[in-house]
Specification:
Layout: E1 8-12, H1 19-26, E2 32-45, E3 52-69, H2 71-81, E4 85-94, E5 101-109, E6 117-118, H3 123-129, H4 131-144
Antiparallel strand pairs: 1-3, 2-3, 2-4, 2-6, 4-5
Helix pairs in contact: 1-4
Amino acid sequence: MSGTVTMHSVFVYGSLMADDVVRLLLNRIPQTASATLPDFHRFSIKGRVYPAIIPAKSDKVSGKVLFGITDDELNVLDEFEDVEYERENVQVLLTDSSDEKLQTKTYVWAKKDDPDLYGTWDFEEWKQLHMEGFLKMTKEFAEELNLPKSEI
């Protein structure tokens, strides 16, 4: 009996764009490609250092796609994103190539009318201001899930 291994792709647009965060969670860095998710907006969230996306016509979110994500890794990402996000299937445009369209998964903020969403979240600002503390939190999260130790 041969088992079929399902591989997934996941569009990430926040803290998971940082290789160090992904390495702590998956114990590896998957193959990636830059991508854009049309008709969504990336918001900051009051009191949080990570972003949320919700549908927004005529807007787009830049991020990247993680390729070759296993079922187990997808479960880890589901746990990491928690109940505040819903995993949804979306279509992104790969920006490294010829704007190829790709069906993929992403995590959308569950509460679409959340009054705590505001402005636009900035990855570069997050890296400078919050990444160090976020890595510490992510490492603790990985340890709680008994994930394999990363080199970080």
